[in-house]
Amino acid sequence: MFVDHVKIYVKGGDGGDGMVAFRREKYIAYGGPAGGDGGKGADVVFIVDEGLRTLMDFRYQRHFKAPRGEHGGSKNMHGKNAVDVVVKVPPGTIVTDAEDGRIIADLVEHGQKAVIAKGGRGGRGNSRFATPQNPAPELSEKGEPGVDREINLELKVLADAGLVGFPSVGKSTLLSVVSSAKPKIADYHFTTLVPNLGMVETDDHRGFVLADLPGLIEGAHEGVGLGHQFLRHIERTRVIIHVIDMSGLEGRDPYEDFLTINEELEQYNLRLTERPQIIVANKMDMPEAEEKLKIFKEKLNDDNALIFPVSALTRKGLDELLHAVMDLLEITAEFPMHEIEEEDKETSVLYKHEAEAPDFEISRDDDGAFVLKGYTIERLFVMTDFNFDQSVRKFSRQLRGMGVDDALRERGAKDGDTVRLLDFEFEFMD
Ligand SMILES: Nc1nc2c(ncn2[C@@H]2O[C@H](COP(=O)(O)OP(=O)(O)OP(=O)(O)O)[C@@H](O)[C@H]2O)c(=O)[nH]1
Ligand SMILES: [Mg+2]
């Protein structure tokens, strides 16, 4: 089964909690703080494995949760960092955020890696909060929650050249005779339902990857036939091989076919028509083909067009065709698909929460309570250990520093009003 689209859920591991502990030593009445930091939560990491060809495995496993870091211990013991969860994906996998469609990673080469859901850092133990004013703090942080999100995986086959044309013109037959691929071949339309890939080796030992696509018909861009859905697989191809049935056996005019398919490629707005095209006049073994080819060339009236008369059945003309494709590939630059910005490339992962969102937002509940929301403020909240007064005091200082108090006052909050944050409620104090 060819699975080229799937939505999954990923979550980085939470960081381990920091600890509150004190040294206990003989003859020392009050030992200093000795609570260790929590370990880092694991990342969910994707790695390209060229042995994979589809996203089928994701059909059965759609949740990937990385383990949390170990909690910090006494005697300043640092909690262990959790081991990353590594997930294999096929080359050509594009990862986007399911919420806003933004590209998280574009995984192309074998061994290429990207962190898809970052684990949280460990909370700091009380040793780290010691100051001359507060040498024995009863205060520690909980671990930072790992990033979680829904993502879409999309597979785009990585072919150098793609076969396009009407159904039954012989695209699959062509692929089957120039590579070891074994696509289904039959004399009815839409035999090919999903793309097939083949590795082609020319007799002078050059090679390229060739994709055979389901046939196109007029109106494909409006969803007629199999529609455009598979054209995205040739977005990355550098050369388009346009196959035309020159036998005229199905009663269509080869030149009209040529125009129709090009119009469909044009309608699919990924600049497919800007790529070099090689025209394959197939089924030249048939009686009417020579005459039809002559008429085709007259109508086309383009001396620069690359036209190769072949017969996929008798294999005539194939070497010349393959050499021409190879020559063209060698001088055609890769087609840039989407410009991932330079700075993004470096990490290949975006943390939009951290990057863009405001620290907090205020709204009102039906009962008049003020509600605080936002990634930064919620993270601060979940990292606070409310069992310790000092932690609670630190939390309220941090809120004040963020401008929460002022903002609440501006929204009309009065002494004693209720303020909500996640599942926590407190009174506003002016
Ligand atoms: N006479 C002749 N018949 C051919 C040639 N190439 C392919 N055919 C026949 O044309 C029919 C369709 O071939 P396919 O390779 O399945 O065509 P396709 O373009 O892949 O068709 P779809 O997958 O339906 O889009 C089959 O019956 C083939 O045997 C050729 O060079 N000469
Ligand atoms: Mg086919």
Describe this structure in words.
The protein folds into three domains: 1-155, GTP1/OBG domain (Spo0b-associated Gtp-binding Protein, Chain: A, Distorted Sandwich); 161-331, 3-Layer(aba) Sandwich (Rossmann fold), CATH 3.40.50.300; 361-427, GTP-binding protein OBG, C-terminal domain (GMP Synthetase, Chain A, domain 3, 2-Layer Sandwich), CATH 3.30.300.350. 21% of the residues lie in helices and 21% in strands. The protein has ten helices and 18 strands. It has a six-stranded mixed sheet with strand order 10-11-9-12-13-14, sandwiched between helices. A hairpin with a 2-residue loop joins β17 and β18 (424-427). The longest helix is centred in the middle third of the chain and has 14 residues, at 254-267. The protein is elongated, with a radius of gyration of 31 Å. The model is unreliable at 339-354 (pLDDT under 50). The protein binds guanosine-5'-triphosphate and magnesium ion.
Topology:
Elements: E1 5-11, E2 44-48, H1 57-60, E3 63-65, E4 85-89, E5 93-97, E6 103-107, E7 113-117, E8 148-155, E9 161-164, H2 171-178, E10 196-201, E11 207-212, E12 239-245, H3 254-267, E13 277-282, H4 289-300, E14 307-309, H5 318-331, H6 342-347, H7 352-355, E15 361-364, E16 370-373, H8 375-382, H9 389-402, H10 404-410, E17 418-421, E18 424-427
Parallel strand pairs: 1-3, 2-4, 9-11, 9-12, 12-13, 13-14, 16-17
Antiparallel strand pairs: 1-8, 2-7, 5-6, 5-8, 10-11, 15-16, 17-18
